[in-house]
Specification:
8 helices, six-stranded antiparallel β-sheet, alpha+beta, elongated, single chain, 12 strands
């Protein structure tokens, strides 16, 4: 990934744990590495294909100068997030906040916090079989889109499917979406649970009816196995109602454990697995 580098941007600000720091302020110095693709801008020599380092400097200067945080960890975290949300061509940022005038009481040159933050790609399956199913699903997608830490890149239309598991219940609508997110996998899970709860999701029985179901299928190419979270989704390879809409969006994404693409997994389950898709014609 190409880099645009900003060094020692000076900002007078009021961050600190002590009241005196908040009242009198002090100098902070900011270093940033912006990771993005500059090839087209370099080849065509056109500013619209890159991000102006002057605009980024001014944005950081204003953000760090106008906001007040107790910890420089928070300054780094919030500023990095704000830059990524403001400038869509930046894929990642390494940001260092230096505090050379920190009230330490010893001789030192500077203290600093450096963080690297970037957009991650997540694939999410969605479904509903209670009430206005399409409305619930569209509401869940919109709730993600309204969160500044998430960008819905694309979403499938919906298919009709039979319920999975042994519980007799109404048919589902199922779909999938691809999201760019600044959340960690655990944070994204918590966000999804929050959206499900807002839609009236009740977890009374495993595989039971639900107003809204949102499952993280992939998160970059990470493999996570904890009590709370399994990525890739532990049973996705057996679910045609997950694989079919997902294959319309990311057919060649490779399952990091099974080593097969989404379209290969779909073909396998269609050939020899359980069939749950009732109508694969996408509805509006």
């Amino acid at each position: 990934m190409d880099e645009i580098i900003i060094e020692n941007l000076k900002v007078y600000a009021y961050h600190g744990v002590y009241q005196e720091e908040n009242e009198k302020g002090q100098n902070f110095y900011i270093n940033a590495v912006l990771y993005m693709d500059t090839r087209r801008a370099g080849n065509e020599d056109k500013p619209e294909f890159t991000t102006s380092y002057g605009d980024v400097c001014q944005f950081i200067y204003n953000y760090v100068g106008k906001n007040v945080f107790k910890l420089i960890e928070a300054v780094a975290e919030k500023t990095a997030e704000a830059v990524l949300c403001e400038f869509p061509l930046i894929d990642a940022i390494t940001l260092e906040i230096r505090k050379p005038e920190a009230p330490i009481g010893l001789e030192f040159q500077s203290v600093s916090v450096r963080v690297t933050r970037r957009w991650h790609m997540a694939c999410i399956a969605v479904g509903s079989n209670i009430g206005d199913r399409q409305k619930y699903i569209e509401g869940g997608i919109e709730a993600l889109a309204q969160d500044n830490k998430c960008k819905v890149v694309k979403s499938s239309e919906l298919i009709r499917t039979k319920a999975y598991g042994e519980i007799e219940q109404d048919e589902f609508l199922n779909g999938a979406l691809v999201v760019k997110t600044l959340y960690t996998p655990e944070e994204l899970l918590n966000k999804i649970l929050e959206i499900e709860a807002a839609a009236g999701r009740e977890r009374r029985e495993h595989w039971g009816p639900r107003t809204l179901d949102m499952d993280i299928i992939f998160y970059d190419d990470m493999i996570i196995n904890t009590d709370a979270l399994n990525i890739p989704h532990i049973d996705m390879q057996n679910r045609d109602f997950v694989l079919e809409p997902l294959a319309r969006l990311v057919p060649y994404v490779v399952h990091p454990v099974l080593g097969k693409t989404v379209i290969q997994l779909l073909e396998e389950v269609q050939k020899s697995g359980e069939k749950h898709v009732i109508d694969s014609e996408y509805i509006h």
